[in-house]
Design brief:
mainly alpha, 5 helices, 62% helix
Length: 209
């Protein structure tokens, strides 16, 4: 059966056209695999701006933290605690509401009398689904370390935590941005070398007219 790469092979299709179509399945062009077959292959690949943007954000955050006075640190610690407490309470309320719904349904399933022995497996299945959902979807405070109420950090501890987080973000995004640039450079070279081997000049269309 023809594939997406072989379906349009004709008696006159040049090898280089077929090769450039197949190139979309390779690592350098894998992101173009699902694009239309006549979508142009770029001459050069640019790195994503994601990590560069986050480097700038981390730099800005470190500058902001460095300029904080005692009042700003205290305000930051208080606002984070209030936001975390609100999120914790909302998540706990949602979990308890889910548990109530599941447990109500479980009671009804347990009270149900299967009409025949052949229906017992069906009842057992419903019980299993509900008990497993209660176990995985529902929680109470203290079930685990990360489900305890948030701690109200002092201004100094909060500030140190924020500085550490910004520095870790900076290291991570610098490393990933460097790798992204290297990948873009390698992809560009791979396509350039392929075009040269096929006798396709730079900025030429995918196929010859």
């Amino acid at each position: 059966m023809p594939t997406g790469y072989t379906a349009d092979i004709t008696d006159t299709m040049p090898f280089r056209d077929f090769a450039m179509k197949c190139a979309r399945a390779m690592g350098a062009l894998i992101m173009m695999r699902d694009d239309p077959s006549d979508a142009p292959i770029p001459e050069a690949f640019e790195p994503s701006t994601y990590h560069a943007e986050n480097i700038a954000k981390a730099d800005a955050r470190l500058k902001e933290l460095d300029e904080m006075d005692a009042a700003a640190k205290e305000r930051g610690a208080r606002e984070e605690f209030m936001a975390a407490s609100k999120a914790h309470a909302e998540s706990l309320a949602k979990s308890r509401g889910t548990r109530r719904r599941y447990e109500r349904m479980l009671r009804e399933v347990n009270d149900w009398k299967p009409p025949t022995p052949d229906h017992q497996g069906f009842k057992d299945f419903m019980v299993q689904q509900l008990t497993e959902s209660i176990r995985f979807d529902c929680w109470e405070e203290g079930d685990s370390e990360w489900r305890k109420p948030p701690k109200h950090l002092g201004p100094g501890d909060w500030w140190a935590k924020e500085v550490d987080k910004a520095n870790r973000d900076l290291v991570y995004h610098r490393r990933e941005h460097t790798a992204e640039v290297e990948r873009a450079t390698m992809r560009t070279k791979w396509v350039k070398d392929l075009r040269a081997s096929l006798g396709i000049a730079a900025h030429s269309p995918l196929t010859e007219e």
